[in-house]
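Summary of Year 1 activities. Much of the first year was spent building the evaluation harness for sequence design. The harness presents a backbone, in tokenized form, and records the residue chosen at every position. We chose the following record to illustrate the format because it has been used consistently in internal testing since the harness was completed.
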């Protein structure tokens, strides 16, 4: 149960991932489940990044929630938003353990802060490790 914003307004309440192992050319399918306890007055984008063992970006998908169909400024309190993302593992991806990280940012590129159990935790949440074969 991760919370994003100041004060925290958007919660990541869960996720579903199609696999925890992939090869170059495979696609990762990720669904994020978001909710809010208070109205959100800004449109935000979601980032999903796959970070390689060397700390470099392997793949990414950035968009407004639900591929632009559910902007954050239209969410109702208590509603759950299902937000699908796909990441293509590029040819030549180095084998090893990668981190799948997510977060939110404003249109100017400013990331929202992350709170875990009421404690500041940077601006991105590692949701799972992915092994590249």
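For this record, the design step produced the sequence shown next.
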């Amino acid at each position: 149960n991760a919370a994003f914003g100041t004060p925290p307004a958007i919660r990541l309440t869960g996720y579903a991932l199609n696999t925890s192992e992939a090869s170059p050319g495979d696609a990762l399918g990720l669904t994020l489940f978001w909710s809010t306890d208070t109205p959100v007055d800004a449109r935000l984008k979601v980032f999903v990044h796959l970070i390689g063992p060397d700390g470099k970006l392997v793949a990414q998908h950035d968009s407004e929630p639900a591929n632009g169909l559910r902007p954050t400024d239209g969410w109702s309190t208590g509603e759950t938003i299902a937000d699908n993302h796909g990441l293509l593992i590029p040819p030549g991806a180095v084998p090893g353990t990668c981190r799948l990280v997510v977060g939110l940012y404003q249109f100017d590129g400013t990331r929202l802060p992350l709170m875990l159990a009421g404690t500041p935790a940077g601006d991105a949440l590692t949701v799972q490790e992915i092994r590249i074969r």
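The longest strand covers residues 96-106. Quantitative recovery figures across the full test set are reported in Table 2.
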